Every structure is written in structure tokens, then in C-alpha cells.
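chain and backbone:
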Amino acid sequence: MMQKNTLLTVGWREWLALPELGIPAIRVKVDTGARTSALHTFNLETFVENGQRKVRFGVHPLRRHPKIEIFCVADLLDERVVTNSGGASERRVVIQTPVRLGDREWPIEITLANRESMKFRMLLGRTAMAGQMLVDPNGSYLLGHRLKKAYQNKLSPKIKSETSSS
């Protein structure tokens, strides 16, 4: 008897949520070439609260809608030197937070970086995928567009129709 595959099958791009950061949906590039996951942030600030190192930052979850801003606070897990997509090394803050993809949720490490010029606000790297999913490189949004609707009440009617088609 064949056992049911417990891995989630995803496309090369999907919508996911970062519930503890208050991000109900963000479009992510599922990137098997990237070891580490990365999230676009702005106004990044580290601080200490009750002896715990923390980081505060803003996120524009929808690239074409910079007026939508979510401000987050997380425990600072680490600071690491990461090689970016251009081959340059840079020091980045690392946090750990749960990710929700489809009907699954698990903790991942994410580096915080300025991805303003990038098409995707987040990369999901292979460390976060390990043991959780299979990637179908021909597929896109295999888990659907349901999460994208989280922002519908924050968008004007004109923008809502444009977002529905993307």
C-alpha cells in the first residue's frame, strides 16, 4: 500500500502569511537557489527590551501599493553575513517567526533586507522548505489566491480590480 505524501506541493510563487508579524498575506518567490529566506523591510531598528534584543521594522506587503504598511516587532535571533543575489556580502538581522502556507504552519528563520528593487517582497529559501514541501517549477499559486483578499478592504475600488487580475 502506498503512503500518502505528506509534503505540500507548491509552485515557484505563492501567497503566504506571517501571523506573528501581523502580515496576513505576502507574495513570495519560492527560491530553491536561495539558502536563506528574506523579507523586504524598511526603517529597521534594533533595540533592547527587558534584556532581550529586538528589532522593529516596516513591511510593504504589496509591491504596487506602498501606502499599505505593516509595522512589526520581533526578537532578534542573530546577525549574519549573507551573500545577496548580486554576489555581494552584507550583514543582515535574522528573526524566527511562524510561516503559514496552505493549511500548514511552522517556524522559519528570515533575514531582513531592503528588497525595494525586487519583484517579490519575500523569498522562501530552501532551509525553510526542508521537510515541508515539494516545488513544482511549472506551477504558480498552486495553493490559490485566497490570502491576497486580506487587503481588499484597504484598497480603493480601482486598485481592487487591478489587484484581482495580478
Observations:
- Residues 157-166 have pLDDT under 50 and may be disordered.
- Residues 130 and 152 are 32 Å apart (CA to CA).
- Residues 11-164 form a domain with the Cathepsin D, subunit A; domain 1 fold (CATH 2.40.70.10).
- The two ends are 42 Å apart (CA to CA).
